[in-house]
Amino acid sequence: MVVLTEIRRALPTVQDEPEETRLRRAALVGAGAFALILVAFWVWWPAGVALGLVAGSFVVLRVGRAMHAAALTEAVGGLHDLSDEEDIREEFRNLRMRLGDDWPVFRRAAVLVTQAQWASVAGLQRELRISTGAAQHIMGQLEREGFVGPSRGTRARVVRLARERSPELERLLHL
Question: With contact defined as beta carbons under 8 Å apart, do 76 and 143 qualify?
Fold first, then answer.
């Protein structure tokens, strides 16, 4: 019996089996959960992308139609509503006083966009030989005064005054 006791002492005790089994089980559960998450992303990601594309396209088209309709039906006020020559002259005098030092460049820009029937910041910069900042400022003034429509991204703005009225505009601007 002494020999059996010595053999047991010489062999390591097997107490780590439950701990090792628990660690293996935890590793397998973690790997399984990770695989499940990957499969879920693989299955749902295309569906989410497709849903996002459809919903996003719908929103873009709806907003674009609304912007287009607003641009076409936008009320044009200011100088276009005036019919009496004296009222128009008075409005241009007030405009000249409001613009101050910007008046000469504004006058050239208004005539240019009316004759050419296009309005863009780059075009104003090129034709009037002014800086980009000055061209943006003048374009903003032209928009506020009703000569051109709002910005349409990279396309040229709509000119609201007909080309036929260009000589009349030139005459009025040289007050």
Answer: no
Which residues lie below 8 Å from residue 107, measured CB to CB, with a gap of 6+? Answer: 173, 174
Q: Are 111 and 166 in contact (CB under 8 A)?
A: yes
Look up the pTM and report it.
0.52
Q: Which residue has the tokens 């613009």?
A: 99
Q: Is the dihedral of CA 71, 81, 99, 165 positive or negative?
A: positive
Query: Which pLDDT tens digit goes with each residue over 62-114?
Result: 877 777 766 665 544 445 554 667 877 888 888 888 888 888 999 999 999 99
Residue that has been written with the tokens 């040229």 in this structure: 156
Asked if pLDDT for residue 165 goes beyond 90, the answer is no
Q: What percent of the chain is modeled with pLDDT above 90?
A: 17
